[in-house]
Amino acid sequence: MDKIKWLIAVLLIAAGIVGFYHYADQGLLYRVLGLLVVIGFAIAIALTTQSGRATLDFGRSAVLEVRKSVWPTRRETTQTTLIVMVMVLLVGIMLWLFDMFLKWAMQLLIGQGG
């Protein structure tokens, strides 16, 4: 029975897309609303299948897990951002100095240096 429901859902979406382009002379708003209604019906049918219910349960449990998350405070976020910016600056300066040293060494090696 689930396969038949999935087939109906897919056929509804296909019919909605065909109808969207078939009624090209109608206003875009009405065509988009019609397509959204058809897709809504197709999703409602798909959610009555076993895999659709499992997907819905998974989504609900994911939302519950997100609610359990402890988000950082504004102060923690600001401190972490500043630490990252300082570290990026320090690593950039170190890489620049290393690059300057390699440039100096290469110029000495090939005889173009002073």
Alpha carbon gyration radius = 30 Å
Which ranges are low-confidence, i.e. pLDDT below 50, for 5 or more consecutive residues? none
Structural class: mainly alpha
Mean pLDDT: 93
Total domain units: 2
H/E element order: HHHH
Described by the principal axes of the CA atoms, the overall outline is elongated
Helix content: over 70%
Q: Strand content of the residues, in percent?
A: under 5%
Report on this structure:
By secondary structure, the protein is an all-alpha fold. It folds into two domains: 2-68; 75-114. Helix content is 84%, strand content 0%. It has four helices and no strands. Helix 1 (2-22) runs antiparallel to helix 2 (28-46). It starts with a helix and ends with a helix. The mean pLDDT is 93.
Which features does this protein show?
elongated, 114 residues, 4 helices, mainly alpha
List the helices and strands and how they pair.
Elements: H1 2-22, H2 28-46, H3 50-68, H4 74-110
Helix pairs in contact: 1-2
Summarize the structure.
The chain has 114 residues and is mainly α. Helices cover 84% and strands 0% of the residues. The chain folds into 2 domains: 2-68; 75-114.
